Structure formats: structure tokens, C-alpha cells
UniProtKB/TrEMBL annotation:
The keyword Oxidoreductase applies. InterPro entries: FAD-bd (IPR002938), FAD/NAD-bd_sf (IPR036188), FAD_aromatic-hydroxylase (IPR051704). It comes from the Bacteria. This is FAD-dependent monooxygenase. PANTHER family: MONOOXYGENASE (PTHR46865:SF2), OXIDOREDUCTASE-RELATED (PTHR46865). Residues 2-332 form the FAD-binding domain. One of its GO terms (molecular function) is monooxygenase activity. Keywords: Monooxygenase, Oxidoreductase.
Length: 407
């Protein structure tokens, strides 16, 4: 089949990898003019995550690019270390920058997948034989299936399922991240400072050659333009006005960052992940939010299952149903692990910040010190993966690079 995938981050290329393996022809359209290589760290943990990476043959490349992060330190306003949070709680079995993972998946698919950057789907018109897709820039094209792997604010979901407000649930937090110099000289570690309702952190990246600045703050739903980066910078600056430690310096550096990212911390919940010949994948279908630490692993597993079911079942409707049946409970578990974390992520007041720090200090001496990490690993492993023993063609021949905006 000719299959169009919207989104070139993680879920989309991972799906294209498997679809190519099974002999389908894949096209990925991405609104950004090139790969998005910024972003924060993402991790994989547990046998289910690692099994998919091994079967793809990308685990070695991911391990070579992993962050090798150690403990994350909570600090006071003067930068004094207070409490260390163990690295395995955040980094799992292997942690990698999201942009580095996107590059690995792109390299694994670029010869067999047509990539169209700087464009987006404008219309989806289904009939019994296929889907006619209109684009914002390129000519109208025809496909057998369309996959929305375009994240929390999925354009495909809006076109085929309905408005975002019907499916996205805000968890009361906003987050911003960007790359800057490792001017604190951090060595495979990070420092985080809590102020009531707000947290700012800096952690080293790429073997300490740079650093990621991370901001979290609590807020009800904000009305802002998601494409107005300048406006988002101003919003963040206002939210952290008066916050100490390195916040003023990082806000100054924010103005110069070319990979600034800002978004709400939200979840996506739908009754069904497919409509006719259109299906959703990853965050577009069931975003658990970054609080779960599961989004990337869930995306990779979902891509493996969706491609496998399409290979095992010639009727796409039955394949979509089987895909959802295999992944739905697992996705729900990943989402539930994030519910309630928000209020602990950013303490609402000074007492809560003090209370949490006392618990962190005592954690190494308590019998349940490994409970949090074990709980996350249990959730990450709560799926049994099929081995899709179907007739596997060698895959499509490398596709010629189309002219224009395709790459």
C-alpha cells in the first residue's frame, strides 16, 4: 500500500521503518523545514522497550549516543546541593536526546521513505478505495492509508476526528526547554531549583559539551499562539519573574536559543484511534505526557504493533482494531502513571517544597527507596509483544529523491 505518515519525529519514522520492512511504500510529511534536532532527553526502560529497539537494529546506535547521566541534584537559591535524585529514576536503561533519536530513525528510513519537509496536510477526503490528501504547499495526492503521528496537537486528528479540545486534557503544567552552553561545568549531571509553583533546571548534554535548560510552572490553560515563539518566550519570562538561582541568566540565554520549545503538559484520550482509512499513533492517539516518562517507548511499541498488524491482516479496518486492542491497555497504564505527578513535580508552596526535600533526603535509608523506579519499570514492561511471523518481503527499493520540498 501507499501510506502517508504525518510527523517526522519518533513515532512516524519508527512506523515507516516497519512498513518498509513489510513491503509498503511510505511517505512522511513534516511541517518543519528539517528534522527537529532539539528537545529534552527521552529514555527507554524494561524488556518491551529494548526488544523493539533490538528488532529494529537501532539499539547499538542509541547506546552510542546515550546521555550517560548520573544523579540530578536539587539545589537552593545559592546553588548549594541539597538532595540527589538517582539517575535510574529518570534515565531508565538507556537515555538519549530526542533530537539524536530522531536522527537515528531518519537515517534508518531515508533511503526507502519519501520525506517531504516544510509542508502539512490541509485536507483529508476518504472514499471506499483510498484517501485524497490536500497539502498546504504541494499538489494533491492519493494514498491508501493516512497515519497521524504528529504529536499532542495532531493536525490529522483535528481533520479526521474533530477539534483538539474534545480530546486533550490539561494536567496543570507548562514546560519549556532549549539548548545553551554548559556554563556551570556540569559533569553528566543536572541541578534543579524549586520555587513555589515553578521549577528551573540545567543539565549537561552531549558529553558535557552543551546543556539543556528546562522550565516547569503550574498554570490553568493559557490562551497563546502555538506558532508565535516570541510570544511564548515573553510568557515564560513573565512566569519566572523574580525567581532566583540561575533563572535570570537562563532567561537571558533563552532569547538567543534557536531550538526553544514551549508547550502544555497534557494527555490525549479518544474512544477510538481510527476513522476509516485514517489511524493515529503515539502522542496523537494517547499522549501520556512527559510526566510519565513513557511517551517515547509507547510510540516505538505502538509503531511496531501497528505495522505488524497491517502486515498480518490484509483488511486495514481489522488491522486497526487489532492494533488498538493490543496497545490500548498499555497506553492507559502509561497515562495513569502520570496522573497525580504534577503537584509533586512543581510544589505549590514552600511547605510542600520543604516536605518533598525531607523525603528525598530520607529516601536512601527507607526500605521503599527503589519503589518509584521499579514501579515505572513495571508499567513500561506491561505488554507482551507479538513476533509478527508474516511473509516479509525484502522491502521496497530505495526511492528516488523527489524534486521540490521532498528530502
Amino acid at each position: 500500500m501507499d501510506i502517508l505518515i504525518s510527523g517526522a519525529s519518533v513515532a512516524g519514522p519508527a512506523l515507516a521503518f516497519w512498513l518498509n520492512r513489510y513491503g509498503h511504500r511510505t511517505t512522511i510529511v513534516e511541517r518543519a523545514p528539517s528534522l527537529r534536532e532539539g528537545g529534552y532527553s527521552v529514555d527507554f526502560r524494561g524488556e518491551a522497550h529494548l526488544t523493539v529497539l533490538r528488532r529494529m537494529g537501532v539499539l547499538d546506535a542509541i547506546e552510542q549516543a546515550q546521555t550517560n547521566m548520573g544523579a540530578m541534584w536539587n539545589v537552593n537559591v545559592d546553588g548549594k546541593k541539597l538532595v540527589a535524585m538517582p539517575g535510574d529514576l529518570f534515565a531508565g536503561d538507556v537515555e538519549i536526546l530526542r533530537g539524536d533519536l530522531a536522527r537515528i530513525l531518519y537515517d534508518a528510513t531515508r533511503l526507502s521513505t519519501e520525506y517531504v519537509f516544510d509542508d502539512s496536510i490541509a485536507s483529508i477526503d476518504q472514499d471506499r478505495d483510498g484517501v485524497t490528501v490536500g497539502f498546504e504547499r504541494g499538489p494533491t495526492r492519493r494514498f491508501d492509508l493516512v497515519v497521524g503521528a504528529d504529536g499532542l496537537h495532531s493536525n490529522v486528528r483535528s481533520l479526521a476526528f474533530g477539534p483538539e479540545s474534545a480530546f486533550v486534557s490539561h494536567l496543570g503544567l507548562y514546560c519549556a526547554v532549549f539548548t545553551t552552553d554548559n556554563y556551570l561545568g556540569l559533569d553528566h549531571t543536572g541541578h534543579a531549583y524549586n520555587s513555589p509553583g515553578r521549577m528551573v533546571a540545567l543539565y549537561s548534554a552531549r558529553e558535557n559539551t552543551e546543556a539543556k535548560a528546562l522550565f516547569w510552572f503550574g498554570s490553568p490553560v493559557l490562551d497563546y499562539d502555538r506558532r508565535d515563539v516570541a510570544g511564548q518566550r515573553e510568557l515564560l519570562a513573565r512566569a519566572f519573574e523574580g525567581v532566583g538561582w540561575e533563572a535570570p541568566e537562563l532567561l537571558r540565554r533563552m532569547r538567543r536559543a534557536d531550538d526553544f520549545y514551549f508547550d502544555s503538559i497534557s494527555q490525549v484520550r479518544l474512544d477510538s484511534w481510527s476513522r476509516g482509512r485514517v489511524v493515529l499513533l503515539g502522542d496523537a492517539a494517547a499522549c501520556p505526557s512527559p510526566l510519565s516518562g513513557m511517551g517515547t517507548g509507547l510510540a516505538m511499541i505502538s509503531a511496531y504493533v501497528l505495522a505488524g498488524e497491517l502486515a498480518a491482516e490484509p483488511d486495514h479496518r481489522a488491522a486497526f482494531e487489532r492494533y488498538e486492542r493490543e496497545v490500548r491497555d498499555y497506553a492507559t497504564g502509561c497515562q495513569e502513571s502520570a496522573v497525580g505527578v504534577a503537584k509533586f513535580m512543581v510544589p505549590e508552596n514552600r511547605f510542600m517544597a520543604w516536605f518533598m526535600n525531607q523525603n528525598y533526603r530520607l529516601l536512601p535509608y527507607l526500605p521503599w527507596k527503589g519503589m518509584m523506579a521499579k514501579s515505572v519499570r513495571k508499567t513500561a514492561s506491561a505488554i507482551t509483544l507479538k513476533d509478527y511471523e508474516v511473509s516479509r518481503p525484502a522491502g521496497p527499493a530505495p526511492r528516488p529523491r523527489p524534486s521540490g520540498r521532498a528530502s
